[in-house]
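Input record (Table S2, row 246):
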Amino acid sequence: MNEKIEQLSKILRDSNNIVFFGGAGISTSSGIPDFRSSNGLYSKKLNRNFTPEQAVSHTFFIRYPEEFFDFYKENLVYPNAKPNDCHIALAKLEEMGKLKAVVTQNIDGLHQAAGSKVVYELHGSVLRNYCMKCHTFYDAGYILEQKGVPHCVKCDGVIKPDVVLYEEGLDDKVISGAIEAIERADTLIIGGTSLVVYPAAGLINYFKGQNLVLINKSATSADSKADLVINDDIAKIMKEAIEGIY
Ligand code: ZN
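Output record (zinc ion complex):
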């Protein structure tokens, strides 16, 4: 394993246009579980069980807003989570001028909390919430403080998290920004994702650079395409690799 970390350090040393693509595995050591692994939701009122995917769908949000926010507040918002060694290493790489962008499937805002500036949040962020009627902004704290469905203080409209729900499209500007960054990159590091979730697999196809690095606890479908595969804890690997650059 040390040999692989040295190899990663060398790649980081020689690269000047790194893009990082990350999924839920990046934030698990910050105490944020992958919500897909949660047990879903049982609604007494509706006398029904819902899978996590159903509970965070657009249809569910519109039809059963109370149940949506029950699930959402319990499983998707972690106000006390702190960036871990992976977030911190990536922010350092950006500060060094080596890393040009982070593309993330996570909605926790931890990359920015660590100091990253260029972050493409494919699925939005729980830190941004908007009134559906008048578009007034609300932070995550306001959503968590409200009992049941959060409403706007100005117009009483329902507040919607700026999170891409199932059945909703991704933001075009975010997608095109992510694609451009990946197209220009000399190194693409993919971490903490099994690459099965749309649009992860498709985005990787835009990469034309030299080094494709995959860091994940278990094997992924793209392992055979990668120049370097490390099956280990990404926070530990990134911390050690960045220490080995100089
Ligand atoms: Zn409003």
